[in-house]
Amino acid sequence: MTEDGCLVGEFFFSGNEACTEGAISAGCRFFGGYPITPSTEIAERMSERLPEVGGAFIQMEDEIASMAAILGASWGGVKAMTATSGPGFSLMMENIGLGLMTETPCVVVNMQRAGPSTGLPTLTGQGDMMQARWGSHGCYGIIALSPDSPQELFDLTVKAFNLSETYRLPVLVMSEAAVGHMYEKVVIPPPGEIEVVHRRKPTVPPEKYLPFKPDADLVPPMANAGEGYHFHVTGLTHDERGYPASSVEVQDKLVRRLVDKVYKNADKIIEVEEDRVDDAEVVVCAYGISARVSRIAIEHARDMGIRAGLLRLITVWPFPEARVRDIARQVKAFIVPEINYGQIALEVERCAGGAARTILVPHMGGGVHNPETILDVIRQAVR
Amino acid sequence: MKAMTGPKEHPLDIYLRAERLPHIWCPGCGIGIILNSFFRGLMESKLDLDKVVMVSGIGCTGRAAGYVNLDSFHTTHGRAIPFATGMKLANPELKVVVFSGDGDLFAIGGNHFIHAARRNIDMTVICVNNFNYGMTGGQLGSTTPLGARTTTSRTGSIEQPMNIPYLAAASGAVYVARWTAAHVGKLERTITEALLKKGFSLVEVISPCPTYYGRMNKQAAGLEQMRYYRDNSVIKHGIDPKHAAIEYQGEIIVGKFVDIERPYLPYPQDREWQINLR
Ligand SMILES: Cc1ncc(C[n+]2csc(CCOP(=O)(O)OP(=O)(O)O)c2C)c(N)n1
Ligand code: SF4
Ligand SMILES: [Mg+2]
Question: N or C, which end of chain B has less CB nearby within 10 Å?
Fold first, then answer.
């Protein structure tokens, strides 16, 4: 452990433990949450770890309050996070919207379980991927990441904080029970080797500070409460001063920017992993635990002489549209195994634009695909 | 953005974002009077204005955050208290004031109120109780008196209203007071006390909404409601707030009901205290 309480070294961690340590290493010093399987271990570990590093932990009365609390904490000047699962994610939606509208950096971890409703509380699912994109009302850009291992839960939680501080928005870590409860080796590098980003501060005196005037990257510098700027923040449509303005023009300018700050920076945000896509005739596009299962199917397909490849979405939102469009020109089909009845498959199909077929391999949740099932679809696709 | 400082017309100008005026409130509305008392109470408290934050929810009252020259947050309906809780725990140096309406704090946000009072989070909550939802057109709320007419209880409310001071005291608030918009001097002094109190303080202020509640209940002008407050308020400091329920067109019991000490959060010697507990 370092002097400031961060862990360093090799550990045998669950995904949830790795996620907690990723947050601590990224500088998270506030957690507000409400227990829910399969994310509870994150709250439990945070309640021990945060006091050790000088942070604050609070178990709120529900997920609505948890989400509100992390927004407040972030404006208080502290990196903040919550963790939940489906039912809690639904309750967080309104305040995720407030976070997007007020450009509040924070991280929301969703350890997905099978829904709808209470569904299968202890068993895995990937049914909240579209909710992550569109769940709060109105138009906005969003960033969502999908880790496929405990190591990546560490790495992507750090990345989520960095993206949230860079682009000033809630960043979603869309993991699932199967990864949160998986135990594997996790390597935590020394602090100097972990990239940690902090929000850009204003460089002008309080009288000149326009809290919602963006820099060239479309992101405004951010003052924290208590620093003497006396700024106003509202969920109402607001101008660059942060003042409410109910006009179509101000709405247009603001909402376009909220969407564009994600889309126009998409190249810098998006991360995918590709395996043997270059010569592929069929590409499996998958994320999270489904990508791990897909690897087995692809291996078998290659053994059979089928040129199969993997496009693993590490960033799910913004969707890697350009890459999927490119690959579509080269392959016969995309195969999309996901633990829902077709969500990301719709995006793949949209971007493929008819150049390649998109074949969904659905799973209603509670378990992961059998690699054989995916293999069968690969074989049919190249026939 | 900090509001520009120019020649001062009025000692309270430094508290207002003058460029945002005129405000949205109706003539005769009590919210402006109460905000004015808040400014005077704040001035008297001598708190460092750089460290005072106002958090509001949604409603006519919730718009107050947009007019104060402080770091101010206009959040979502009902969620000002949990937002303020996160901010206070993240930065204990801040003095966090929640300024919002009865519907915001006690209907949609009621559960958060109970839990913040129970935890005794060090913050001040000022509730403007106008017995209805002003912003959405004067509907029934959780404080509408039994029998009062609103746009969703046209023949008179059939629901038992909430007694805010009683709920606050039972939930664990260490400071509980009620005044009306006709008690500006007393309200100012109470606000100063509440701001300086360590722990969760609640100030309820009964306020005219002439546009809806007044019009529906034969007090169409703000002045008539103010006259009613003046003639029907009874000061009873220190009484058990159980006896402070408000009846339709009846007596309004006002005063300071609770002023006690108990450990609050964030506890200043948090670490030591937790270690001692182990
Ligand atoms: C989630 C949600 N539901 C409903 C509304 C609509 N709404 C706005 S203000 C309000 C009631 C406000 O009443 P109160 O808090 O008493 O404030 P007042 O306007 O009376 O000052 C409602 C229902 C909303 N903004 N958000
Ligand atoms: S509707 Fe009622 S509460 Fe709202 S501003 Fe008008 S008088 Fe005040
Ligand atoms: Mg009201």
Answer: C
